[in-house]
Amino acid sequence: MIPDAPPEARRAAIEALYAAYASGDPSLTLAAMADDIEFEFVAPRTAFAFAGPRVGKAGALAAMGEIAKIYSVDFITIKSLMMDGDDVCVIMRAGFTERSSGISLETDLIDVAEVKGGKIVKLREFFSVDHVATQLDSSVLLAIPPGRVSGAG
User: Fold this and answer.
1) Mean pLDDT, 10 residues at a time, the chain of 153 residues
2) Domains in the chain and their CATH numbers?
3) According to the 3-state scheme, what is the secondary structure of the chain?
């Protein structure tokens, strides 16, 4: 991220981060993160092992590594990017292939981030669990205990 830069430059930096992630090399993405980043894929851990909160670059890297073991990233296309002060919201379309089955899927992702001092200090990624699960296999949904909104608790 570029601190105190015009919105166009900040937008270009954010787009470059997602391009780096899609390329499979997380080093540029990690460089944009604060050492103590709060990082979370918001989904039930019973269905998506990589989900849940992580702290620090090591935690973020572990989560991204867990995803890379399960899925290859086919594409990430930013549909909308909104910035308001330190807050950033990115809406994107992404395509993945499940490595074990070869099943391809597409879904919308929403990232909500907070930037301080030119570094991402908080990142939450949201997606429709039902939409992803129905593209993969309905058994993913069966892994979610009845009556629970998330895997927490």
Assistant:
1) 58 71 77 90 85 94 89 90 87 90 90 83 87 68 47 40
2) 7-142 (3.10.450.50)
3) CCCCCCHHHHHHHHHHHHHHHHHCCCHHHHHCEEEEEEEEEECCCCCCCCCEEEEHHHHHHHHHHHHHHHEEEEEEEEEEEEEECCEEEEEEEEEEEECCCCCEEEEEEEEEEEEECCEEEEEEEEECHHHHHHHHCCHHHHCCCCCCCCCCC
